Amino acid sequence: MGFLGLSSSSSSSSSAGMAVAVAVLGLVLNAAVLCNGGITSAFVRKVEKSFDMPLESDVFRVPPGYNAPQQVHITQGDHVGKGVIVSWVTMDEPGSNAVLYWRENSNRKKQAEGKVVTYTFHNYTSGYIHHCTIGNLKFNTKYYYEVGLEHTMRKFWFVTPPEVGPDVPYTFGLIGDLGQSYDSNKTLTHYELNPVKGKAVLFVGDLSYADNYPNHDNVRWDSWGRFVERSTAYQPWIWTAGNHEIDFAPDIVSIP
After folding, report:
1. Which terminus in the chain has less CB density within 10 A, N or C?
2. Which Enzyme Commission number(s) are listed (predicted)?
3. What single-letter DSSP state applies at residue 8?
4. Model pTM?
């Protein structure tokens, strides 16, 4: 409070100023209490960096079946919480761009069509990356969805957020610098098992650390996508890019 140190020419104005300062300080402290979610766990990841898990680890397993969707993940699809973007990758061929979805306890299924893109980076060529936005969802409702409609179908679910309001509780998980090491697996497992369940994840950057590998090996983006699917397919992860997402390597590619 910068004005706490100001002097006054009269005792009355000084008393009034002090009263205002105390009142404002009380409001600030009260707001801090109201906004404090508390410490939900004693879990602390050790400082020493562990080794990356080998590609044959079970957490990187490719789902069985021809052209099976993998690296399935969702994120919020609009500003109010009634839309979800579903993304996934197919490796053998593009396959279906569609998402089939329906509300819990409902037999009425709807279908949304998405788009597919690919990219190349040095000696790497991606699979077929699908993005599909589904909208006009109901608030605070569980939905099931299926992808891979023409070949190997896979089924997942998510819960939409409640309608926006001044006193609506909503719990976020906060993750950053995850990577794909043995400690990464411990961190993600801890998040999944935490009794205070996050309804969405705010990811604050540095996802796969693929840029730590020779030629920025983008195969490690695929392994990371399969690693986190166990969470990202079931709740929105809202992403922020970090420095490890800037794939600038002028020695191997001219365009970042």
Report:
1. C
2. 3.1.3.2
3. -
4. 0.82
